[in-house]
Amino acid sequence: MKQLSLLLGVGLLFAGAFPVSAQQSEGGAMPRPVEHAELGLLEAVGQYSHRIVLALPGETSADRKAYQSYETNEETLVEGMGSIMQVNDELSEDVDHVVVVTYVDRGEHFLAKRINFAADDVIRETHGTIQDLNRDDRTMVVKNADGTERMDLGSGAGAVIDGNRGLLSISDLRVGQQVTVEYGTDGIAYLVRVE
pTM of the full predicted structure? Predict the structure, then answer.
């Protein structure tokens, strides 16, 4: 009994030494990690290392900006397939396809949450201002230096929309916003970055 009371006393002593953060004490839960997204060419799928590697796009395939590695776990979902742990072998066969990876920054690494395949492996990029937006039809027109581009934001999950503070929805888009859009030759937007 003395050991139990001694352990409780030491536990209480240490509990006061490490204050609980204000966010944790108010709601009782830690804040949800901020998710972001990146589009790139799926280069490698580690069957045993639980990692995927993306080649981030440059102007041409020979001019790739960089490579980015993402950790995966049993909660990483592959669009239309399920958990990455269940489909790792199948996913290994899909290298050299364009994907959008939704991830959280864990400090020492990025953790992939979702992997969505692009229907088109030829990706274009445009930068401009949203000139028109139709949320019902899920389309927008972006005015850029060359004129205008009409984009389809896709059905279902549709385009991933990323802002400075994390992922957004189509309802967060506004006419007049500056955006960078990565889209296929068919006009379907895969990643919209709001600036």
Answer: 0.71
